[in-house]
Amino acid sequence: MKRALPLLVALFLLTGCFEIDQTIRLEKNLSGTADFHLGVNFEPMVTIMAQFARDMEGKTGPLTAADIEKAKADFRKNTKKSSSEKPSLAEMKKSMPEGIELLDFQAKEGDFRIDSDFKFGFKKLQNLVGVKLPSKEGGDPTQKNVVDTPFDGLELVEKGDTITIRTKPVNPAEAVKEEAKDAPKMDAAAEKLMRDAFKDLRVTYRITAPFTVVSHNATRREGNTLVWEYTMDRFEELSKKSADELGVRVTYRR
């Protein structure tokens, strides 16, 4: 099992406290803008990695300051600063699919946190499905995007004077599990650590439209904006039900 440690650590580096916020603002002709925020706080993972390493070494008792410092050093060693490797806004604009314009992109990176903000303009809502976030080459697990296609699964159905928008919420935990399929089988303790890594997962969807709402399954409503909120517990509930029950769904009358 000790030989599996590097692979499992690399897998853990894909995880973190994810904050995903997606906002769509529709115009009457179904054009509009979409904001996508992806924040990843890796600091809780430092503690989890330290505990994992301590358990692998057969040590008992609480974590020490030395354990935490070593985990921080290992984390920095395995995650290289990538500011200079980020594509420019001009380069990213060229890679946008038809019907999409990248209006803005901002990224902030610290020792244990990365925040990325994208703003897109779209001619038709369906154009958003083709948006793919920039990724790095080389196959380094620490450099992969857990969320590659933020609007994947977005559907718009027009019927008479109504339009229905629905999508399956992006679940970063599912992406990490997919990466883990070829990793050594983890014991109960390691699985618990993985679950702990996602305990603060937060995913939020917002849709603002100038139409009359016929029906929806949003968590709450703020004026013309419908808000859907997901936590790890809600994603687990979603996995046992249809996407139409707990996924993003709203029907408008024009």
Principal-axes geometry comes out as: globular
Low-confidence runs of at least 5 consecutive residues? 1-13, 137-144
Q: How would you spell out the order of helices and strands?
A: HEEHHHEEEEHHEEEEHHE
Number of helical runs? 8
Strand order of the largest sheet: 3-4-2-1-7-10-9
What portion of residues is helical?
25-40%
* Total tally of structural domains: 1
Radius of gyration: 20 Å
> Termini separation (Å)?
59 Å
| Global mean pLDDT | 79
Question: What can you tell me about this protein's structure?
Answer:
- The protein is an alpha+beta fold.
- The chain has one domain.
- 28% of the residues lie in helices and 31% in strands.
- It is built from eight helices and eleven strands.
- The protein has a seven-stranded mixed sheet.
- The termini are far apart.
- 24% of the residues are buried.
- Mean pLDDT is 79; it is low at 1-13 and 137-144.
